[in-house]
Amino acid sequence: MLKKINLFIFVFSLFFVTAQNNINIKENYVKSDYVTNKTREIGQNIRCLVCQNQSIDDSSSQIAQDLRILIKEKIETGSTDKEIYEYLSNRYGDYILLNPPLKTNTILLWFLPFIILILGLFLVMKILKKSRFK
Amino acid sequence: MKSKIIIFNILPLTLFALILAVSALVLYEVKKNPSNQNLINSQLIGKKIPTIKIEKIDFFQQKVKDQTLNIDKYKNNFFAVNFFASWCAPCRVEAPLIEELSKLIPVVGIAYKDKVKNTKVFLEDYGNPYDQIGLDDFGKIAIDWGVYGVPETFIVNTDGKIIYRHAGPLLYNVFKSEVLPLIRKK
Fold it and tell me: Candidates 3.40.30.10, 3.90.226.10, 2.40.160.10, 3.40.1280.10; correct CATH number of B55-185?
């Protein structure tokens, strides 16, 4: 019986933990499906600067919450996606974008995987050819 | 045939050496200039300051004055903007250096997500080096300045352009080697 009561208290207190979190977030996601979806979509491409490799959509840190609220407000006032990304990268640099833009200094970043893939294929073909003739 | 075997033996080693060399170079650069470590180096350097339309904290009356910060008064002068908060431990660490800075140029304090009464206690304990203090209760101004945590310090030149930004507490070595030369140059 005591065990059951303890379990009940535990589960009951868990309920309050989540409720508390919801209060902290201060974001009203019920308002409009379009704004919600758009905010989440953009948030998934924005790096949470104080986290380890998380997007602001994943993170519950203060700055992530603030940025989500800001993005939501910008969507509501009719900003385009491009304007929002530009606004953020003008302030926090391209580092805030989880999808790095194709620029002269990121060419290597974008194409090195393909170059390595082609080189690897070339190498595999060479080795296969050699072993077949043996 | 033999030369081919040699190439296949040497190629991975060469690639490894190359990667090692590049990493060493990057590490060396970072060591040489610690501010390079900051990947999010301010994008605002060389740009005009963003507007700061926030309410001023009246230190004596303990509440927010019905008045916004007056930035125009620094026209044609150097000044600094320091984002701080009473709940922020590194802000306590840098307090003496902000005091030093305020002896050279006016410092505008922006209380980030703070409560006025806590700000007041903080300033009573650590001194008030600020010429004016604004309250950024929702962190909106901070985002506009590209701030991602407190403390952060900006130095603005006579053209109203940001010439320097330091994220994290302002420590003596940074103050001496980076901040002082900038202010002396003015």
Answer: 3.40.30.10
